[in-house]
Amino acid sequence: MTVEAKLGRVGADAADAVIVGLFEGERLPDGRATAMENALKGLLSDVLDIGDFKGKKGDTLLLYPRGAAPPKRVLLVGLGPRERFTLDIARQAAGKAGRALLDLGVTRLMTTVHGLGITGLSPDACAQATVEGTLLGTYRFSEFKTDNGQNGKRLDRLTVVYSHRGRARAIQAGVETGRIVADSTLLARDLSNAPGNALTPRGLADAASKMAKRAHLACQVFGKKEIEKIGMGALLAVNRGSEEPPRFIVLEHGQPSGKQGTIVFVGKGITFDSGGISIKPGDRMEEMKHDMSGAAAVVGAMQAIGALNLPAHVVGLIPATENLPDGRAYKPGDIIPTLAGKTIEVINTDAEGRVVLADALAYAARYKPAAVIDLATLTGACVVALGHHATGIMGNDEVVMARVQRAGNATGERVWPLPLWDEYHEQIKSEVADVKNTGGRPGGAITGAAFLQKFVDYPWVHLDIAGTAYTDREQPYCPKGATGAGVRLLVQFAKDWGK
Q1: CB 3.0–4.6 Å: which of 318, 436, 447, 483 could bond 295 by disulfide?
Q2: Which uninterrupted H or E stretch holds 322?
Q3: Which are the catalytic amino acids?
Q4: pLDDT for 169-183, tens place per residue?
């Protein structure tokens, strides 16, 4: 697909469709009247005079000019009140408008830059948000559909129109960044949406390796024998019930720098989670193909970081396995060794994500990291606490946590802190091992993080994305299924870190 920025007048071309964002209560978009083709300007003035479109956030109105203006279609999308406008509203408007036109079969779109001229928002940020929203909103996962109908439609071209020559460099940079970040988020969605029989640990490793070549990253994949040699007893224990061998994936961008230090991203890579011996209910178990969404986020973020060539040393670590029950599967009551040398008492085999992350977090220590962020669909308890609107954040370093929160606010991938008090650590004390892998239902999201904290001795943040990694309802720039949660946040974090 082609994504481009074009200097010109809005509506001057006989395009298939033009998207125009309008603020609530404003007759014409500020600063855009002189940049708008006169025929389109007149058409919009008539529509606004009638009052059928008021610019409320998320409202849309499709117009067919029929020669009154050059474009075949004009889609108005509401941006809401100017004083409450944010970059995420730009993404939402772009996503909703793009999807509405794609549903009509339109695959070549032109759009204005939503929010351009708003005080405090740079042209490149507005252009990036517009492109991200459009590409994310028009995503469809149709790889396994055999028909060639509407479900297979994808955008062929997105043209972002601007009129101020002095903003050209900023808008073009924003458009390109938006394309890279959106493409990387869509890669994460594709990986998470893929069924467990198609995306095994080996399949995930292959996808990561192919991505690394495209993005000019270093990539190393450890097989089962190498994992045994390293001493990752926790990853091997979870894998015992599966016929599919495990993989441990290492991705690396840049070189170590004493000035900035190394960032490590760790993603939970359970390509399918049945719960193991502590088997899950059958209802909605198919959603457990998404249990590698943390790994998908790391793969996507590393692709964007490589493509943007950010000035930072970033490492991505992914422990990948299935969690299935058979005669060899690990069991409640088992005591298993870990790379860190600590032992884990297994209380529930469905608390396997934290178990494999224990080995990955221990491995991260060899990079002497300045910051480590792990992402995992770890607990249903986090969904109960925060719903599907925010990711839970916990950690041992207030400065790194604050940086993650800022990145989340900037990208619309909001995070909300939960405490990690000593009392929660009491819940996971074991009488027969160093730690047990669950502390029961009370504070389940927090005790999961407390377990992980036993395996870190560096600045660390845990993101529980169980409520945000996938959705069962359509959102403004995300259809049902995987969201790619975490990709844009991690990229923004790495960009800010480089500064």
Answers
A1: 318
A2: strand 313-323
A3: 280, 354
A4: 999 999 999 999 999
